[in-house]
Amino acid sequence: MCGRYAATKSPAALMQEFEAADGTEGHAPAENYNVAPTKDVVGVVERHPRDAEGNVDADAPAERALRVLRWGLVPFWAKDAAIGNRMINTRAETAAEKPAFRKALSRRRCLIPADGWFEWKVGPVPDGQPKKKAPKEPFFMTSGDGSSLAFAGIWETWRDPKGDPDAPPLVTCSIITTEARGRLVEVHDRMPLLMPPDRWHDWLDPDRTDATSLLEPPGLDVVDTLELRPVSTLVNNVRNNGPQLLDRADEAVELDGEGAAASEAALFDVPGAR
C-alpha cells in the first residue's frame, strides 16, 4: 500500500518532466518530504478543453496539465467528504468493480508524481510480546536516477449536497496499489502501481474508458531499478518534514525513548496510513 510519500519538485520541474501545462493556478503545495493522507498534492491529468460556453470539446486534442488534488477520494455520490479519509488507496484488483472507484477508473485517471514512497517493514515479534509490539523499520523506495516516480491514480469531483451550489467542487484522488514485486516483497506485500513513461499516454487518455489491461503490476525491469533505502524513524511522525527524512538510516538521527514512542503513535494516527 502507500500511506506516505515524498514530493519535492516544483511545478516548473514537473511541467518539463511530464510535458504538462501548469494548471495549479498558483496553489501547488510546497515541497513536502512527508506527504500524508488528506493533504493537497499535485496530480497530472489529461482532458479535452472546454469551449467558450464551458462545454467539453471532444473533437479538440486532449491537454495534459498539473492539477491540485486532495489525497483521499470522495466519490461524487458521497454525502460527507470525510469518507475520503478511508479511500487514500484503491486496490488494482477490485478497482473496476467497486462503486466508489469504477467510474473514476473509467473516466478520470491521473498520475501522482513522487520522489518515492515510504513503507514500514515489520520485524520479528519479541518473545512474549503481542504482534503489535513488533518493530517497524521505515524504508524509502525511490528511483535510482533522481527521476520522478509516477503513481497511477484516479480522481473525482465532489460537491457538498448541503453547501453552496455555486462553490467550487472538492477535487480528490486515490493512489492505486498492487501486489509488490521483486525485492519490494521484503518490505511489504503491497506497492503503488507505478506507471513508466511509455504507459503515461494510455493511462491518461480521456477517451479510453477500459483501463483494466493497464492495471497489471509493473515488470521487474521497473521494480529492479528502485533503491530500497532504510531511513530514520523520524518519518513516522507526520509533523516531521525536511530532507533529513530521506537520509539513509546510518546517516540519520534516530529517535529513542519517549520520542520514538510518540513518533510510532503518530504513524497510526494518520487515516489509512497502514
TrEMBL record:
InterPro entries: SRAP (IPR003738), SRAP-like (IPR036590). Gene3D superfamilies: SOS response associated peptidase-like. It is an enzyme of class 3 (hydrolase). This is Abasic site processing protein. Its EC number is 3.4.-.-. Belongs to the SOS response-associated peptidase family. Keywords: Covalent protein-DNA linkage, DNA damage, DNA-binding, Hydrolase, Lyase, Protease. SUPFAM superfamilies: BB1717-like.
